[in-house]
Design goal:
Helices cover about 45% and strands about 25% of the residues. The protein contains ten helices and ten strands. Helix 8 (about 185-190) packs across helix 9. It has a domain at about 5-65 and about 90-95 and about 120-135 and about 150-170 and about 180-205. The N and C termini lie far apart (about 35 Å). The strands form three sheets. Strands 4-3-1-7-8-9 form a six-stranded parallel β-sheet. The protein has a two-stranded antiparallel ribbon with strand order 2-10. The longest helix has 16 residues, at about 35-50. The radius of gyration is 18 Å and the shape is globular. It has helices at about 15-25, 35-50, 70-75, 80-90, 115-130, 145-155, 175-180, 185-190, 195-200, 205-210; strands at about 5-10, 30, 55-65, 95-100, 100-105, 110, 135-140, 160-165, 180-185, 200-205. By secondary structure, the chain is of the alpha/beta class.
Length: about 220
């Protein structure tokens, strides 16, 4: 049992956006970042047998590709991005962005998010090395992060994979789940605890669903 828990949270923005899109379609809701962080601290404190006040998220980081300002303006995304950034700032989340690129392939324009996953992994590993977190919580389902989990475990840092699968097809890599020391699948957890689900979600007014767009 640890006397105090220092927690680092690392959010894959692409994955987080997919979860929110599914929640908006199914529940007309999005995740409350503050409530999600409270859940993380409360569950870790319970599992380690410490007072919840002694379990703190000492750093939280969010990684995402995004359009340049003109492209975002043309797509009516600037309001969405700024609103979501306000939420991150209010919860002391450091955001890391790389510009998206558009390439034409076989007559179709494809949006490329290049380098974000590598940045995510390098930053998580480097910060875990220097900050010596007791726990690292990874909010992602990407198989590319399997080696990150393995490296964190080599540092003897307990690693939690936090996912929320809301589709018929599991979006979480089986290899990633197998590698992680702890896997919290929120769809299973909230199914057993409807009150927690209500706590984690912010219900959107009908008029607010459209302006928020599809990205957050």
């Amino acid at each position: 049992m640890l006397g105090y828990l220092s927690v680092g949270v690392f959010i894959d923005g692409g994955y987080y956006a997919k979860v929110n899109r599914a929640l908006k379609a199914i529940e007309s809701s999005i995740i409350r970042v503050r409530s999600l962080f409270d859940f993380i601290c409360g569950r870790l404190a319970y599992e380690e047998g410490v007072n919840p006040s002694d379990c703190q998220i000492t750093e939280a980081h969010y990684f995402r590709g995004r359009y340049r300002v003109k492209e975002a303006y043309d797509r009516h995304l600037l309001y969405n991005e700024r609103k979501f950034e306000d939420t991150l700032i209010e919860n002391d989340v450091v955001f890391h962005y790389k510009h998206l690129r558009e390439v034409e392939k076989n007559g179709e324009v494809q949006v490329i998010e290049k380098g974000v996953d590598v940045w995510f992994a390098l930053e998580a590993y480097e910060l875990a090395t220097f900050r010596k977190f007791d726990y690292v919580v990874l909010i992602t389902g990407d198989a590319d992060h399997e080696m990150l989990v393995r490296k964190l475990k080599a540092l003897k840092i307990k690693t939690v994979l936090l996912t929320w699968n809301l589709t018929d097809v599991d979006a979480t890599s089986p290899l990633l789940k197998e590698e992680a020391g702890h896997h919290w699948e929120l769809s299973h957890i909230v199914h057993k605890d409807p009150a927690l689900k209500n706590h984690l979600l912010y219900r959107l007014r009908e008029s607010a669903v459209s302006p928020l767009g599809d990205d957050f």
